[in-house]
Amino acid sequence: MDTDVIALSIPGVFAPLASVSDALAWTVVAAFVVASALTWAGRRTAARYLASATWVLFGVFWLSVFPTFWFEMKSAIEGSLSLVAVPACVYTGYLLYDGRESLLTLSHAVGVMGLVYLPAETVPLFRRFLVETVAAQTYAVITALGYSPEFIPVDKDVAVQGYLSMFVFEDATGHTYTTHIVTACTGIGSMSIFGGLIAAVRAPLRRKAKALGIAVAIIWVLNIARNVFIAVAFGRQWFQQEIFITIATEYAGYQDPKLASYFIADRVVSQSLSVVALVAITWLVVRELPELLDVIEEALFVVTGTEYDLADALGQPVRADGGPDE
Questions:
Q1: pLDDT by residue (tens digit) across 44-60?
Q2: How far apart are CA 279 and CA 301, in angstroms?
Q3: CA atoms of 126 and 163, how far apart (whole Å)
Q4: Which of 226, 236, 287, 319 is catalytic?
Q5: Tens digits of per-residue pLDDT, 277-310?
Q6: What is the dihedral of CA 276, 64, 58, 128, to 10 degrees?
Q7: Is 185 part of the annotated catalytic residue set?
């Protein structure tokens, strides 16, 4: 059996679904926003049914982006998470349909996340401003560290064609190594997650604003550091040891062995540390806004099927009026 033919046919199966992923994303966000409006209007049963159906559609969306993460971006972490999200979303929809109204708060959070993220991803004006701002700050740090790559407009990647966001390193033989900033490199995805979660809970505006400020500031700084690390690690070929080349070419599917440094820096080191960073940021935000624990408990119930009392486990009680115990 020709395994190469099989590998090529898998993304082809998903191609029709992948072509409508943007439309699916906007539909999901719009439906969650309507469900939130129905909740605020007191029509909780209608909101629950609409949100339930939308979660199933959200699962279809994650299935539509799986081939992009797994086959095009060659990201095992993002690809695996997108597949795990499919049954998780469908199960969340079932729980809502079955009467677990507390999941409406999580639905509201996802709607807000989409309202923050999608314009940056799909509206060229917003996307260009964000990408070029992050690229300029990344370049400033790279040069401050003593490196001097060219900083030029992108000459590939249709989504950011012409954006001033490409770094070009050249080695002693004249070979060039280029990386460029795209929307995923701006940290807007992580910021939208915390923005949605914080917006969804009931708490004093002052504490919500402080929690959001903490999350956004940390994500922004860490994201710039991540971009610098990837650009320099690839540009200077830090991970060209035999073991990393073997992993990249034999197991990750990269044909050019010079891409081993990029694969290790981005797909392995950076993405793994991103998960750790998100957990740490969540802990810091929860210290300021313990009401988030309710939403996190709901998410954990969906994943594990077990009820949790995180406030008690963390020693972080919450008052009935929405403030932390003094």
A1: 999 999 999 999 999 99
A2: 17
A3: 12
A4: 226
A5: 999 999 999 999 999 998 888 888 888 878 877 7
A6: 70
A7: yes
In 3D space, the residue among 168, 176, 132 whose CA is nearest the CA of residue 151 turns out to be 168
Q: For residues 64 and 58, give the distance between their C-alpha atoms in angstroms, rounded to a whole number.
A: 10
Q: Which of 89, 127, 185, 267 is catalytic?
A: 185
Confidence of residue 14 (pLDDT cuts 50, 70, 90): low
* pLDDT number for residue 75: 73
317 pLDDT band, cuts 50/70/90, is: low
Neighbouring-strand partners of residue 82? none
Q: For position 18, what pLDDT does the model report? A: 66
Query: Is 128 known to be catalytic?
Result: no
Q: Which two tokens stand for residue 239?
A: 């991970």
Q: pLDDT digits over 71-115, tens only?
A: 777 777 778 888 899 999 999 999 999 999 889 999 999 999 999
What distance in Å separates the CA atoms of residue 160 and residue 131, rounded to the nearest whole number? 8
Q: 3-state SS of the chain? A: CCHHHHHHHHHHHHHHHHCCHHHHHHHHHHHHHHHHHHHHCCCHHHHHHHHHHHHHHHHHHHHHHHHHHHHHCCCHHHHHHHHHHHHHHHHHHHHHHCCCCCHHHHHHHHHHHHHHHHHHHHCHHHHHHHHHHHHHHHHHHHHHCCCCCEEEECCCCHHHCCCEEEEEEECCCCCEEEEECCHHHCCHHHHHHHHHHHHHCCCCHHHHHHHHHHHHHHHHHHHHHHHHHHHHHHHCCCCCCHHHHHHHHHHCCCCCHHHHHHHHHHHHHHHHHHHHHHHHHHHHHHHHCCCHHHHHHHHHHHHHCCCCCHHHHHCCCECCCCCECC
